[in-house]
Design goal:
Blueprint: E1 6-12, H1 15-26, E2 30-36, H2 38-48, E3 52-55, H3 64-73, E4 82-86, H4 91-100, E5 105-108, H5 113-128
Parallel strand pairs: 1-2, 1-3, 3-4, 4-5
Length: 131
């Protein structure tokens, strides 16, 4: 299982960001599926059941918090960890995300490739650790 390719869904309305994240994480052995916007992302998460979801908050069709709430309300997607990746980087937003909504991590754009990789690996390692 540890050698199995980890599949991530990145829900983001900017195709360039999806391509950038796919490039960064594929070099580390992750498969990144891009979903253009919240509605498509939610459908993809339900269909693919990825190991992890990277989620932008500000999207025109469906806001990231709506996607997150629907994931957590659905028994089939509730346990999938979520890392918020957003330009909404004020400290209050981070507090809301990490402590109120209980996302696994919160990355502010712009981010370094190392910051993204570290966060993904940390969250996935935590998921694999025996409870």
């Amino acid at each position: 299982m540890a050698d199995q390719l980890k599949r991530l869904v990145y829900i983001e309305d900017e195709e360039e960001m999806i391509d950038l994240v796919r490039l960064i994480l594929s070099r580390r052995g992750f498969e990144v599926l891009g979903a253009n916007g919240g509605r498509q992302g939610l459908d993809m998460v339900r269909k693919e059941h990825p190991d992890l979801v990277l989620l932008d908050l500000m999207m025109p069709d469906m806001d990231g918090w709506d996607v997150y709430q629907q994931m957590k309300a659905d028994d089939s997607t509730r346990e999938i960890p979520v890392i918020v990746v957003t330009a909404k980087a004020q400290s209050i937003d981070k507090v809301l995300g990490l402590h109120i909504a209980k996302v696994e991590d919160y990355i502010a754009k712009p981010f370094s490739p190392q910051e993204l990789t570290d966060s993904v690996e940390k969250v996935l390692a935590r998921r694999q650790a025996p409870q």
